């Protein structure tokens, strides 16, 4: 896999994806196309059980590359194509079948914060901060995602003002798992990734699917959906191996069946 805006390293069933578009990992058309291609592939790869998403340099992602914007409004259909690409690159992360840990190494702004919110688990360095600053360049987008995680008041204040929320405040609000010195960020994320990657691949896939799908369902239907997954898993070799290993007090050996 060769990409111009991403670096990929796969080892021991963990894929580390590093955003690599210096100086601030701003997102352009090429970046988004590569995100879609890569995450669709990782979703199907049997040698990947967990993904860690981070950035090069001191910025996770500064969001959309504003240099692409001026020419869009003047060409019929251009903005529609652009918006579709933005949606689908975000969806490629959100719909990926593998758990994704966002290791946020610096500011995550606008569409950069969107990449974080499309991921499953968030950890951040102490110098990271988060914002939706579109209002500052005469645009408006992202409140759909903000209102999933923040109170109405905080989400709308962030949206109307472009205010920054520090990693420390995100940790206080319980929105990130850890707020760490920069040199501890990746070791912490990788330790968590190794724990996730040690689980049954079939169970992980259905767990990720359930975590995403049940957000869209009434509670009664969501729990029935989860119970259906449990029934399906109970018939697999991996589940029988997990239960036998538990009784025998040993590590399970999964075969993905």
Note down, in words, how this protein is organized.
By secondary structure, the protein is of the alpha/beta class. Helix content is 47%, strand content 14%. A six-stranded mixed sheet has the order 1-2-3-4-6-9, with helices on both faces. Helix 8 (201-213) runs antiparallel to helix 9. The protein is globular, with a radius of gyration of 19 Å. The two termini are 27 Å apart. The model has no long low-confidence stretch (mean pLDDT 93).
Number of strands: 9
User: Structural class, from helix and strand content?
Assistant: alpha/beta
Spatially, the strands of the biggest sheet line up as 1-2-3-4-6-9
What is the mean pLDDT? Answer: 93
Query: Per DSSP, what share of the residues sits in E-state strands of 2 or more residues?
Result: 5-15%
Shape: globular
State the assembly state of the protein chains: single chain
Query: Using only CA atoms, what is the Rg?
Result: 19 Å
List the helices and strands and how they pair.
Layout: E1 6-11, E2 14-19, H1 29-44, E3 50-55, H2 78-94, E4 100-104, E5 108-109, H3 111-118, E6 121-125, E7 129-131, H4 143-149, H5 152-161, E8 165-166, H6 167-172, E9 179-180, H7 182-197, H8 201-213, H9 219-234, H10 237-248
Helix pairs in contact: 1-2, 2-3, 4-5, 8-9
InterPro entries: ClpP/crotonase-like_dom_sf, Enoyl-CoA_hyd/isom_CS, Enoyl-CoA_hydra/iso, Enoyl-CoA_hydra_C
Organism: Comamonas squillarum
Pfam family, one: ECH_1
């Amino acid at each position: 896999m060769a990409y111009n805006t991403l670096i990929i390293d796969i080892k021991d069933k963990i894929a580390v994806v590093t955003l690599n578009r210096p100086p601030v990992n701003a997102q352009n058309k090429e970046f988004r196309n590569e995100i879609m291609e890569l995450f669709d592939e990782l979703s199907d790869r049997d040698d990947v059980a967990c993904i860690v998403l981070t950035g090069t340099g001191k910025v996770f992602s500064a969001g959309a590359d504003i240099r692409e914007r001026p020419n869009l409004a003047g060409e019929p259909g251009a903005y529609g194509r652009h918006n579709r690409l933005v949606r689908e690159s975000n969806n490629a992360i959100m719909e990926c079948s593998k758990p994704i840990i966002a290791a946020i190494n610096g500011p995550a702004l606008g569409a950069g914060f969107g990449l974080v919110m499309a991921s499953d688990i968030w950890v951040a360095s102490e110098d990271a901060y988060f914002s939706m600053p579109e209002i500052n360049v005469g645009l408006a987008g992202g409140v759909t995602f903000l209102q999933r995680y923040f109170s109405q008041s905080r989400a709308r204040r962030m949206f109307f003002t472009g205010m920054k929320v520090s990693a420390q405040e995100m940790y206080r609000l319980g929105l990130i798992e850890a707020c760490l010195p920069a040199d501890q960020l990746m070791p912490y994320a990788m330790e968590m990734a190794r724990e996730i990657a040690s689980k049954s691949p079939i169970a992980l896939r259905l767990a990720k699917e359930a975590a995403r799908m049940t957000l869209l369902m009434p509670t009664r239907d969501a729990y029935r959906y989860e119970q259906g997954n449990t029934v399906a898993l109970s018939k697999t070799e991996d589940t029988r191996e997990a239960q036998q290993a538990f009784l025998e007090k040993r590590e399970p050996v999964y075969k993905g069946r």
